[in-house]
Design the sequence.
């Protein structure tokens, strides 16, 4: 004895496919959301106590990264400059700019400016700036075009897949050490070769392999081992 | 039912506390990092095996006597696997990240370590659960249709009707149904052997003395069927008594199950004997120490109780008077369940507590939360079982009909059909 109309057959068959597609779509949506700026904040500028422009200071004035981030070559932490570093110049120029009042207030009171951290790695990740700098990873490889960021945002997702992508093939991103702080550095091409140790390299892979040897990078197996970053 | 419900609440409370505080509420610590959770996991998943054996292998072997016990044995499998499946999740430090065990395109670009038997376990158990569920459900379809036709309640009619998937009891339906059921039986058959084999790899792949033995896969499978049939009897004996279905679940079922228990019990004992023999014959000092430790160590009581419950007591099954005495059989089955639980206790905890270095010897003391979660799963299992008995036909109606004298096809008639 049937209690459903014959048309229920169509519904039941359709529901099988709908179920599969719904499940597949839900999975796909989760995967996409997990990688979207909604979760990673990539490309989203964070509010700061003073609207410091890297674009103006780096591209406009040509200040080197290390002028402020002094410990980047020697320490795990690149360093956030003390207010005194700001006041080196701002005691002379723009001394009355209202935008800089929080900086002057900090200088007068001796209380640090509380910047909002932008490139925030999870606490269970051990990360060291100095090793990356010294092995020829450029600042903008990870931080993006900082000289074009009026307000700071994280360029990369900072997710593990992003770290691992480079750790699995570091030769794809290495550059000569003296180019690390060059924000306008370009990977070698036929038209714009990069010279190193008297040789001229016309493609990134040959340059990268040369630098892997030259800077004694640990093997890919070593730098993709769990305990390299999760200590 | 009420007691089961209370135990179930206790279980939920214990699980909430566990998730809130972490696995520290258990007695596990180095060197015994695998405590009750893994003991219970192996025990429960082993119990499930009897259901699959009854429904799949006996189906393929055309053992028709299975027809009245297969339904609740399959349900038992499902609920036991559900209980078993919870433990690996409970024993994770961060249980809400259990899905990391599955290979999916995650943001870490890492896949689970496919060389690890723990990952094989995930696939073995999820496959087992899926196949058992489908097998159970397909078996239920004709009965759900009967229930749809029998009920006068509109809402129930709709629910049963939807679940019966338009079953009309037509010959064409039956033809397809039997084919599908046999195919599923064929699919489920290797699982009886494979699931517990994979579970045994969790141990035998490790190098801990007491784990690292090649006898584990067959020994685990036999032990699984052993404990499974014990659970079938523990359930069947009261069910047939209190629901008055002694004519459906007959003495023959009970006796056959007892004989299966006796046979698998001896395979398990063979396993014990050869474990001990290889400890001596292998000549490895750590293995010899393991044997000494089992017999004289701080957990010696567990090994002796294990030998008594799994080896000595079941020998009464040689006697037909015992095999046909439900009450005695009930207690023998309970004893086997205890014994098989102790077997996993001996394997997991005794091996881990004293392995290679004297300096890393340690003891394991289960806390009240260990016990709460273990006993809680018993409550969960019983609650599921009672709900099943209440809501669905515990004995397959349609398959029982095939056992009726009227269902027997006359030989002459069959030949006629064949000639056509």
Sequence:
């Amino acid at each position: 004895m049937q209690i459903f109309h014959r048309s229920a057959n169509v519904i039941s068959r359709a529901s099988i496919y709908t179920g599969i597609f719904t499940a597949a779509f839900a999975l796909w949506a989760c995967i996409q959301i997990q990688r979207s700026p909604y979760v990673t904040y990539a490309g989203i500028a964070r509010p700061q106590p003073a609207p410091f422009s890297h674009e103006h200071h780096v591209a406009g004035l040509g200040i080197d990264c290390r002028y402020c981030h002094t410990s980047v070559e020697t320490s795990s932490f690149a360093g956030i400059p003390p207010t005194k570093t700001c006041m080196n110049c701002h005691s002379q120029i723009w001394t009355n700019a209202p935008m800089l009042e929080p900086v002057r207030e900090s200088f007068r009171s001796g209380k640090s400016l509380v910047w909002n951290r932008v490139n925030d790695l999870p606490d269970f990740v051990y990360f060291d700036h100095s090793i990356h700098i010294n092995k020829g990873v450029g600042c903008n490889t990870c931080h993006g075009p900082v000289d074009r960021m009026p307000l700071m945002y994280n360029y990369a997702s900072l997710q593990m897949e992003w770290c691992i992508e480079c750790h699995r093939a570091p030769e794809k991103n290495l550059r000569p050490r003296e180019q690390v702080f060059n924000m306008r550095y370009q990977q070698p091409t036929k038209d714009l070769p990069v010279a190193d140790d008297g040789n001229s390299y016309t493609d990134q892979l040959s340059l990268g392999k040369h630098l892997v040897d030259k800077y004694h990078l640990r093997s890919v197996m070593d730098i993709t081992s769990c305990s390299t970053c999760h200590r | 039912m009420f007691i089961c419900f209370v135990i179930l609440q206790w279980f939920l409370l214990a699980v909430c506390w566990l998730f809130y505080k972490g696995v520290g509420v258990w007695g596990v610590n180095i060197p015994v990092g695998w405590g009750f959770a893994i003991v219970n996991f192996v025990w429960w998943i082993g119990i499930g095996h009897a259901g699959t054996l009854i429904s799949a292998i006996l189906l393929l072997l055309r053992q028709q006597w299975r027809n009245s016990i297969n339904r609740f044995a399959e349900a038992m499998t499902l609920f036991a696997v559900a209980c078993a499946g919870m433990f690996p999740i409970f024993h994770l430090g961060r249980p809400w990240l259990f899905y990391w065990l599955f290979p999916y395109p995650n943001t870490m670009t890492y896949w689970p370590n496919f060389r690890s038997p723990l990952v094989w376990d995930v696939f073995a158990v999820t496959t087992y659960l899926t196949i058992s569920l489908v097998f159970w459900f397909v078996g239920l379809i004709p009965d759900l249709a009967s229930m749809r036709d029998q009920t006068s309640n509109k809402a129930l009619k709709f629910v049963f009707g939807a679940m019966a998937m338009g079953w009309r009891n037509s010959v064409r339906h039956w033809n397809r149904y039997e084919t599908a059921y046999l195919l599923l039986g064929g699919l489920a058959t290797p699982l009886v052997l494979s699931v517990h084999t994979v579970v045994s790899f969790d141990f035998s792949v490790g190098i801990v003395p007491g784990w690292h033995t090649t006898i584990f896969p067959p020994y685990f499978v036999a032990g699984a069927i052993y404990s499974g049939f014990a659970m079938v009897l523990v359930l069947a004996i009261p069910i047939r008594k209190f629901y008055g279905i002694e004519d459906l679940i007959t003495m023959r079922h009970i006796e056959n199950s007892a004989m299966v228990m006796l046979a698998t019990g001896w395979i398990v004992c063979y396993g014990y004997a050869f474990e001990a023999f290889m400890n001596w014959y292998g000549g490895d000092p750590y293995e010899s120490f393991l044997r000494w430790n089992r017999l004289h160590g701080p957990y010696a009581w567990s090994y002796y109780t294990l030998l008594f419950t799994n080896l000595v007591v079941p020998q009464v099954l040689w006697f037909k008077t015992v095999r046909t005495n439900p009450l005695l059989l009930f207690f023998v089955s309970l004893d086997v369940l205890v014994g098989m639980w102790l077997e996993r206790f001996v394997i997991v905890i005794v091996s881990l507590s004293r392995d290679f270095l004297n300096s890393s010897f340690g003891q394991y003391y289960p806390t009240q939360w260990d016990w709460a979660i273990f006993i809680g799963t018993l409550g969960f299992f019983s609650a599921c079982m009672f709900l099943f008995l209440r809501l669905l036909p515990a004995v397959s109606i349609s398959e029982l009909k095939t056992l009726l004298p009227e269902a027997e096809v006359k030989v002459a008639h069959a030949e006629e059909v064949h000639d056509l």
Notes: The interface with chain A takes residues 104-110, 148-149, 157-158, 161-162, 165-166, 168 of chain B (CB under 8 Å). Chain B has 15 helices and no strands. Chain B has one domain: 2-105+116-419.
